[in-house]
Specification:
With 311 residues, the protein is α/β, with parallel strands linked by helices. It is built from 10 helices and 14 strands. Strand 12 and strand 13 form a beta hairpin. The structure holds adenosine-5'-diphosphate. The site of adenosine-5'-diphosphate has 18 residues, from helix 8 and helix 9.
């Protein structure tokens, strides 16, 4: 079973407006309220792939209950640690082809709550074969928090796929005792990590991935949007080419890619198959309106069109 960790989930509210007027009243009947957060997207896609999955993280209050109810309705198993603090709302206003977002920072967790969650996670991890950790850290948790989760999994030889950025990512790369098994940065995140401009060709990207900061990470999957991905697995490099498609909504493609990677790794597929799997789930997400959502029926058609070659 795959355990997905979302430490800062949200209820994502999307309001569709014909026109957005600032400093005025805007009314809409087109409202969507869904369980959100990068790890929740990963969970949803894994569930759609019929992969055994369990979602965890911290939720709280009325919105936390709403989130779990939503997942229950979709028959997605979850076991969150319950805090007394309310889960956050994230608001997206869709207007004139544009998207204006209002993102709450979310609750600030105490040391006690951190330790209680770690106990909860340690109990859950007994029955899992792969862990995914996605998204930003909530306030109150130090940048080494993900490293703590990785270490607990590593002691049980469970691979951890980490999809985060900023300080939390840098800390987990620099820690020499517990490394993630896989990271999935995009090019922007690689350039932020190495404090250099985005690579302009694959040879340069390959050189970037040889940087000592990545030592000890078995898989680095650099997703390149419409250009597929450039992948390092130990000392082997791969380039994945994907078909041109009509994009409906690319938000959540990275999360969908992580779900594909987790599924492929959980099924112990070959390198090429894991990469094809992940590209397919990424592509399928861009073809749907809903974030972190795929149409499983189109899987085989697009899987056949992904080309993975050693670089
Ligand atoms: P992130 O959302 O993390 O920045 P990317 O934008 O690189 O991730 O997208 C992840 C994956 O989703 C890509 O590797 C690809 O498989 C798929 N994808 C993203 N954008 C497109 C697109 N425009 N056309 C086809 N596939 C896409």
């Amino acid at each position: 079973m795959i355990l997905t960790v979302t430490m800062n989930p949200s209820i994502d509210m999307s309001y569709q407006l014909d026109q957005f007027s600032i400093d005025s009243v805007n009314r809409t009947t087109k409202v969507l309220k869904t369980a959100g957060g990068k790890g929740i997207n990963v969970t949803r896609v894994l569930h759609q792939l019929n992969e055994p999955v369990l979602a965890t993280g911290i939720i709280g209050g009325y919105l936390g209950e709403y989130l779990v109810n939503q997942m229950n309705e979709q028959l997605i198993p979850s076991d969150f640690y319950k805090s007394t603090q309310e889960t956050r709302n994230c608001i997206a206003i869709l207007h004139q082809g544009q998207q204006t977002e209002l993102l709450e920072a979310g609750p600030t967790f105490s040391k006690e709550e951190e330790l209680s969650f770690i106990d909860h996670y340690t109990n859950l991890i007994k029955d899992v074969s792969v862990v995914t950790i996605s998204g930003s850290l909530p306030q109150g948790l130090d940048s080494d928090f993900y490293t703590k989760l990785i270490k607990i999994a590593q002691e049980k030889a469970i691979p951890v796929l980490l999809d985060t950025s900023g300080k939390a990512l840098i800390h987990s790369l620099k820690n020499t005792h517990a490394k993630p098994f896989l990271i999935k940065p995009n090019q922007h995140e690689i350039s932020e990590l190495l404090e250099k401009p985005v690579a302009t060709n694959f040879q340069e990207l390959k050189n970037d991935l040889e940087n000592p900061i990545f030592d000890g990470i078995e898989w680095i999957v650099v997703s390149l949007g419409a250009d597929g991905a450039f992948v390092k697995h130990n000392d082997t490099y791969y380039k994945a080419d994907i078909p041109t498609i009509i994009v409906v909504n690319p938000v959540g493609s990275g999360d969908s890619t992580v779900a594909g990677l987790a599924a492929g790794i959980n099924q112990q597929l070959s390198d090429e198959e894991i990469i094809k799997y992940a590209m397919t789930t990424g592509i399928l997400n861009t073809m749907e309106e809903q974030t972190g959502f795929i149409n499983r029926e189109k899987f085989d058609e697009y899987y056949q069109q992904v080309v993975v070659q050693k670089y």
